[in-house]
Amino acid sequence: MSVIVRTPSGKIKLYCKGADTVLYERLGDNQTYRDVTLGQLEQFATSGLRTLCCAVADIPDDVYTEWKKTYHTASISLQYREKNLEAAAELIEKNLMLLGATAIEDRLQEGVPEAIASLLKADIKVWMLTGDKQETAINIGYACRLLTHGMPVLLVNEDSLDSTRETVSRHMHDFGEHLKHLNEVALVIDGQTLKYALSCDVRQSFLDVAMSCKAVICCRVSPLQKSEIVEMVKISVHAITLAIGDGANDVAMIQAAHVGVGISGVEGLQAACASDYSIAQFRFLTKLLFVHGAWSYSRLTKLILYSFHKNVCLYVIELWFAILCGFSGQTLFERWTIGLYNVIFTAFPPLVIGLFDRSCSAENMQRFPALYKTSQSGQLFNVKVFWLWISSAAVHSILVFWMTMGIIRHDVVWSSGRTGDNYFFGNMVYTYVVVLVCLKAGLEIDAWTTITHLALWGSILSWFIFLGIYCNFWPTIPIASEMLGEDKILLSSGVFWMGLIIIPVLTLIGDVTYKVINRSLFKTLAEEVRAKELANEDPATVVYRATKHTLTETARLLKNVFRKPLRVPNQEIDLQRLPTTLAISAACTVRVDGYAFSQEEHGVIPHSELIRLYDTTKSKPEGL
């Protein structure tokens, strides 16, 4: 990151900060403090600090004037703006003079390792895209539990398109029949190699290898490369992507993903402002996904399906009525009752489903990430489920209409022999439909609360209250003259009350039978956990039994294919004498400039040495 300033004396200076491996490439010749600073970086790393280098350059006025035009042209370009800006910055970030290095204590946020472990348990693929050097990225991977000790790590570091293609092809061959299947293997690739891996003829092969690995770490990547990786997964894998970041260099990635999450903190608010959701810490992501995400998915699917069901159940009845009246266009229901069906009488059941329904408690949703798999697999909402609900609604409409038609087919509905009219029959059917769809909502609701009871029984009651008021408007209010006295006719019929008890129950008996059989013999994990919650028992044993899996012999053999890269610290290696595979691994593990992250094991300074060098008799230095 660089900034250009003009001093009070009129000189133009460029100040630049960055990792040592990046900044040292931009230094000019005859750097007095180059080697001294490297020694100090090692001392800082020994203390477990994260480092940055600072440099400065004097910019002549004519050079700045010419470069300013180039930068302005890049900043207003409509295509490849970020790429053009990077190219423009490269033109002026050169011949720097090293000023020194800074060191701070940089730790992972609280709960990051646990959060990533939970994401992996939920079968969510986690890819880490970072601008840090490879060694730093690997150490962070171990620190946050993205990588585990004993997990084979594929290191891909190449400097040409042909060698990248050859390496990716070799890894594809090593996976064999396990290609495109999840394996306990991690892939680490740097930004230079990624540039070739994302080219047209290697992209699909690289993606197949990456999707075969449990964890993927892309280091030394630019903001543009981050967004390209997200776009690649979106388009090629057809997966739902979520990008989370806390800095301005994560904005492109956040905007490219289906769901962008920004962390607001010391890195600024650029990521938070460009995201769909903003959280304060990374660990809150588990609650956002496993609790609010899973609840929202379940609620929305039920709300959508139920809304289709209740409307099909009512309005298809008009089709069955048209058969009886010779398709004359006569309606069965009064016009205002039709209009208020979704506004009043069946408005509250879908509302409480969408706001208050939940499959399991928030504590257990976070505690057992396996419960999130239902949301991933789309079990609650797909083409099959949709048409099952539509078919169920059509069957319900048939049963309600024709059973009601059957009980009044002789038109004798009072003991005195009095018969009803067209609206009497319509109000009977309408009442049964309102009761039916409210009871159907009760069957689908998992969490019964006081508000749920009020919504369901209150919706049924609201129809009877409306009927009593609306049928007495005429002649005080000059509307609904045809409904005058229909409430007394309807409520005084014994056949109506008998049908009110029998018809909705008989219509729903198939749904109840299906629910009983399904929840007795084919319980889902969420249903088993909910049953344990109702019994005030710990559902851990149920979840463990449902998610337990053993490492197969084939998986063990696969782990032996990808050997863990050799560590050969502090010594030179003749890469020409090594086989191709070992040469790649050794080249990635030879110590080079850079001590950006050395707190964890396998850093530049071993953790055991770090502990022994720490002087506990001295007080810890404090910041300003």
Report on the structure:
- The protein has 624 residues and is α/β, with parallel strands linked by helices.
- It is 54% helix and 10% strand.
- It is built from 29 helices and 11 strands.
- The strands form 3 sheets. The chain has a 4-stranded antiparallel beta sheet. Strands 5-8-7-6 form a 4-stranded parallel beta sheet, with helices on both faces. The chain has a 3-stranded parallel beta sheet with strand order 9-10-11.
- Helix 3 (61-75) runs antiparallel to helix 4 (81-92), helix 13 (284-315) runs parallel beside helix 20 (383-407) and helix 21 (422-444) packs parallel to helix 24 (494-521).
How would you briefly describe this protein structure?
With 624 residues, the protein is of the alpha/beta class. The chain contains 29 helices and eleven strands. Helix content is 54%, strand content 10%.
Number of separate strands = 11
Radius of gyration: 34 Å
Q: What share of the residues lie within helices? A: 40-55%
Q: Spatial order of the strands in the main sheet?
A: 1-2-3-4
How many helices?
A: 29
Q: Which geometry do the CA atoms define?
A: elongated
Largest sheet: 4 strands, antiparallel
List unreliable stretches of 5+ residues.
550-554, 563-603
Let me know the average pLDDT: 83
Q: Please give the alpha-carbon distance between the first and last residues.
A: 24 Å
Strand content: 5-15%
SS-derived structural category: alpha/beta
